[in-house]
Amino acid sequence: MNLVTKKIVMAKDIGIHGNLFGGILMAWIDEAAAAYATEYCHTPNMVTVHVDAFTFKKPLKAGQHIRIYACVKELGRTSITLKLEAYKYNLYSREETLVCNTNATFVRIDDDGTPTAIGETIRRNHYEKLPITT
């Protein structure tokens, strides 16, 4: 997994139960995923088309640090699916605790919003990096 972004939970992000509002974390994860997908595919023309269920495992409080990681789960002709995980980061112990995970799929589009192929060089480089399985 690759570190994509870091966030600090602020008081403005807290819901009625004193925890980070789930919608805020969902937005942070989508933003991190979009940044990762666009950089990986060398194009700003990527849009979210699907996000799996978000599984919230631990609450987050104001002042806590979040780290969001991503990796490519699958690369298609026009799409990329990412595995995403968000961790609470303890500044003192450097321990990370999984707080949320999901998968998200992005599609490369042209100016009209029509899916268009991800560059062949990106696809070739991706598949060259994969481990050989027998």
Q: Which features does this protein show?
A:
134 residues, 22% helix, alpha+beta, Thiol Ester Dehydrase, Chain A
Textual characterization of the structure:
This protein has one domain (about 1-130): Thiol Ester Dehydrase, Chain A (Roll). It has 2 helices and 6 strands. The protein has helices spanning about 20-40, 120-130; strands at about 1-10, 45-50, 55, 65-75, 80-90, 95-110. Strands 1, 2, 3, 4, 5 and 6 form a 6-stranded antiparallel beta sheet that branches. The longest helix has 20 residues, at about 20-40. The radius of gyration is 16 Å and the shape is elongated.
Q: Oligomer, anyone?
A: single chain
**CATH homologous superfamily, by name?**
Hotdog Thioesterase
What integer value in Å does the Rg equal? 16 Å
The CATH first-level class comes to: Alpha Beta
Q: What sequence of helices (H) and strands (E) makes up the elements? A: EHEEEEEH
Distance between the amino and carboxyl termini: 24 Å
Beta-strand percent range: 35-45%
Principal-axis shape: elongated
Number of helices: 2
Let me know the average pLDDT: 94
Q: Total domains, how many?
A: 1
**CATH-derived architecture:** Roll
The largest sheet, given as strand count, sense and whether it forms a barrel, is: 6 strands, antiparallel
Uncertain segments are none
Provide the structure class: alpha+beta
Count of distinct strands = 6
CATH topology: Thiol Ester Dehydrase, Chain A
Helix content: 10-25%
Summarize this structure briefly.
The chain is of the alpha+beta class. It has 2 helices and 6 strands.
List the helices and strands and how they pair.
Layout: E1 2-8, H1 22-41, E2 46-51, E3 55-56, E4 65-75, E5 79-89, E6 96-108, H2 120-129
Antiparallel strand pairs: 1-4, 2-6, 3-6, 4-5, 5-6
